[in-house]
Amino acid sequence: MFSEKVASFEEGQVLLFDKPLYWTSFDLVNKVRIIIRSAFGIKKIKIGHAGTLDPLASGLMLICTGRATKRIEEFRDLDKEYVATIHLGETTPSYDLETEINGRFPVEHITENLVITTLNGFLGEQKQVPPIHSAKMIEGKRAYEFARKGIQKDMNPVTVYFREAELLSFGIPDITVRIVCSKGTYIRSFARDLGLALGSGACLSHLERTAVGPYLLKNSFSLEKFEESIKDLKQNRNPYV
Q: How much is the pTM?
């Protein structure tokens, strides 16, 4: 029984995790690898994720093990759902709170109805410029490598698709929005573009990914719960797989 459960990780599992705030996607993948290898004495196992989350974002990540890593591109193509808190009236170079404020703008004219109307204008296909503080490749390097050196580079716009954009809460200077969008969408860029569309400025102050296609954050593991499940699995108390 134990050997069969160990083998199932090597044959392929799709695991849902709630990535902690401030962790990189690599940090989470590496931690899951360490937990599985140390628990079962597996010397080598393929593990990868199906979609990066920034360190300043939390929420759902799909981690594939073994042969399931062949399905990573399939999962990356799925729509994503996010809940974003957007800070109105201030901008930053990274479009989030990773960098210092570089601009302040009026917000007195912004009403709840204006935000709702403006959000509706984002629905459908859009051209979006990725942040320079991102992992997009430029001239064989990550864009953030140029940004951190203060080197300006033009970012080519990409086509993205917004299926839903719902205002969850309104307040000045912070609003909360639920977004369902295509792969490759930068919510940081969306926050910047929303600020401009509102005749002001904006940056992303909090982001949580709540769904990837049919996979939901509410069904995901925290690292602590995953470690507990692995311990139960070793003792054959929980038929995890």
A: 0.89
Per-domain boundaries in the chain: 2-76+215-234, 80-212
Please check whether the domain covering 2-76+215-234 is classified as CATH 3.40.250.10.
no
Q: Could you check whether 2-76+215-234 and 80-212 share the same CATH topology?
A: yes
Strand, helix or coil for residue 205: strand
The proportion of the chain whose per-residue pLDDT surpasses 70, expressed as a percent, equals 85
Superfamily of domain 80-212: Pseudouridine synthase (3.30.2350.10)
Structure tokens at 137: 């490749």
- The tally of CA atoms less than 13 A away on the side-chain side of residue 80 is 24
Kindly give the pairing relationship between strand 124-128 and strand 137-138: unpaired
Name the residues annotated as catalytic. Answer: 54
pLDDT at 129: 87
CA distance 223 to 228: 9
pLDDT band at 233 (very low <50, low <70, confident <90, very high): confident
- Nearest-Å Rg of the Cα atoms of the chain is 20
